[in-house]
Design a protein that fits this description.
This protein is an alpha/beta fold. It has 15 helices and 14 strands. The mean pLDDT is 95.
Length: 405
């Protein structure tokens, strides 16, 4: 059911933003819609998700209406603060959004459109488990305004999927991609590497299978062992071996080589796209620190430097909204030092790089040593930006620590 929520200041029951919260109307605004339902809990997953047996007091068939109540609250709150803007991106994440009927997802999207409007050419993404995608489902999503499907492939090897507790049929990935293409949707494929028992050859096979599907976009994430997960307990008991850092580095380099050869460019440490127009604009908004409202249990939001997060359980979330109250559990306004640290952490990961203006004087002086160590590109540094080399991408945490020391 995900990690514990962070601590913060009390959030007002009406969700009102502080009177002194200034906002820039030119700052892009995005919407995240969290669908917390899964058929099976994957052993590595730390997201706020729930299987049917964990949903006491909450119902999937009422979820779209419940989210609609938060959408109405958001319009009221942002309107009162003079911060209403059309959504440039909308992202349905989870969980497994496609466990809900496509019509429910369409109603949620219509609620967002009615409340905020959509910018011209808005990117509308739905994450999907391959087993939940059919031509009929994808056609209905496309008709509702969805523009992009992000398919959780994870691996092409059955034994790797089993190690991750993924239950989908690998053959259904190609079927899902074909259905999305036929409906006119852009396609992203998500992979995970470094699972227990996965070899470099296994990973190569998954990459080659994914590339052969000709997606517009591909994400490849190193498996991370999160506290409190089934995988963490298995490793602690010695039942499986922890991910090997050196092997994961080899897997990353293999991915970068194969994807570059197939015409993909990296634009964030774990993300590649066929060209600039096929990047995930929604995720780029997170890395650039723009504004978004996250709807659903456990979802996080950010507007003009204010952050807040919702209560975690779907039942508690629904109960608050039924009472006409904000589902926010707490909120915070990070100070300038915390905002700078976060900017370095996130913006250094993207290809456009981190401008020196986001660094302290000590951070700027540290760039030269990072260039000498081959972690930061000299050309980017000469233009006043921190741009990671491939070695720097592998050691991104080291770069951040050096820049913020």
């Amino acid at each position: 059911m995900g990690s514990a929520l962070p601590l913060g200041d009390p959030a007002p029951p009406d969700g009102a933003l502080p009177d002194d919260l200034g906002h820039d109307p030119s700052t892009p605004f995005g919407v995240y819609l969290h669908v917390p339902f899964c058929r099976v809990r994957c052993g590595y997953c730390d997201f706020n998700t729930y299987t049917a047996t964990e949903l006491q007091g909450a119902r999937q068939d009422q979820y779209a209406d419940t989210v609609g109540q938060e959408i109405a609250l958001a319009r009221r709150v942002l309107g009162d603060a003079g911060a209403l803007r059309p959504a440039q991106t909308v992202f349905f994440g989870g969980g497994t959004p496609t466990l809900l009927p496509a019509g429910d997802l369409g109603r949620m999207l219509a609620g967002v459109t009615d409340a905020f409007g959509l910018a011209d050419g808005a990117e509308i993404t739905v994450e999907a488990n391959p087993d939940t995608v059919t031509p009929a489902v994808v056609r209905e999503l496309a008709a509702s305004g969805v523009t992009r499907l992000s398919i959780g492939m994870q691996s092409a090897r059955p034994h790797v999927l089993a190690a991750l507790d993924r239950t989908h049929d690998p053959a259904n990935v190609a079927t899902a991609v074909a259905a999305a293409r036929d409906a006119g949707l852009a396609v992203s494929v998500d992979l995970i590497y470094g699972a227990p028992g996965e070899s470099l050859d296994d990973w190569r096979a998954s990459l080659e299978t994914a590339v052969a599907l000709h997606p517009d976009h591909l994400s490849a994430y190193a498996l991370i062992v999160e506290d409190g997960t089934k995988l963490a307990r298995q490793i602690r008991r010695g039942e499986v071996v922890a991910p090997d850092d050196d092997l994961q580095a080899d897997m990353y380099e293999l991915a970068d080589d194969l994807l570059a050869a197939a015409g993909f460019d990296w634009y964030e440490v774990s993300n590649w796209a066929r060209d600039d127009t096929r990047r995930s604009r929604h995720n780029l908004a997170y890395w650039r620190g723009t504004d978004w409202w996250g709807f659903g249990p456990g979802a996080h939001s950010h507007v003009a430097g204010l952050r807040w997060w919702n209560v975690k359980h779907p039942a508690a979330y629904a109960q608050r909204l039924a009472l006409g109250e904000s589902p926010a559990a707490a909120r915070e306004r990070p100070d300038a030092t915390a905002r700078r640290l976060e900017s370095v952490l996130l913006r250094s990961r993207i290809r456009e790089g981190l401008p020196f203006t986001e660094l302290t004087d000590e951070g700027v002086r540290a760039v030269a040593s990072l260039v000498d160590e081959g972690l930061v590109a000299a050309e980017g540094a000469g233009a006043g930006r921190v741009v990671l080399t491939r070695r720097g991408r592998l050691l991104a945490d080291t770069v951040v620590r050096t820049l913020t020391a």
